[in-house]
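Re: the request from the purification team.
They wanted to know what the chain is likely to look like in 3D before they choose a buffer screen. I agreed to run a prediction and write the result into the notebook, where they can find it.
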Amino acid sequence: MIEKAHHWENVYRNKSFDAVSWYAPHLAESLRLIEQLCLDKTAAIVDIGAGESTLVDDLLQRHYLDLSVPDISATAIEFTKQRLGTKAAQVSWHVGDITRYDFASKQFDLWHDRAVFHFLTEPSARRSYIELVRRSMQPGGYVLMATFGPDGPRQCSGLDVVRFTDEQLHHEFGDGFEWLGSEINHHQTPSGTHQQFLYCWCRRSY
């Protein structure tokens, strides 16, 4: 935990918010899919490893009322809170390693993860993550994952990553999750390179 937290604190302290490879001014694909899956503005939505992403800004602008933002980096969380100003009070903030976290009795209607799960190179870490999803999701809720696709990079931010096909990603989650769809998107990094992202979404069936 300490080693991982130290790595990400260094990233967010030493790089501008718009210089990290996963930066986009707006997460258009995520936002589109969230709005398709969650029409109810009172739906409880969690954005895993949101960092300094503007997704929470855009969801607030669209009047979603129950938003949670966890990240391993306290620096990233503080940056986003400062950017939101008084609106930050409308969001539930969490700092910690998602593979060791516990949302207690909180139950989510939509679990969004863009670019966290592919950093979990150890099967045990992925199992811990998925067990947290199982504990934290409402039956009938949605899981929206964006990982590097089969032609995505093998490393990111100096760390090894796992690349997935839609079948492989769905297999990781296993029984209790009904696969609904997937699509490939290409993200252009601030340095001009392209990264293949796989978006998959499923429903928590029980």
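For the purification team: Residues 107 and 136 are 5 Å apart (CA to CA).
Please add any questions underneath this entry.
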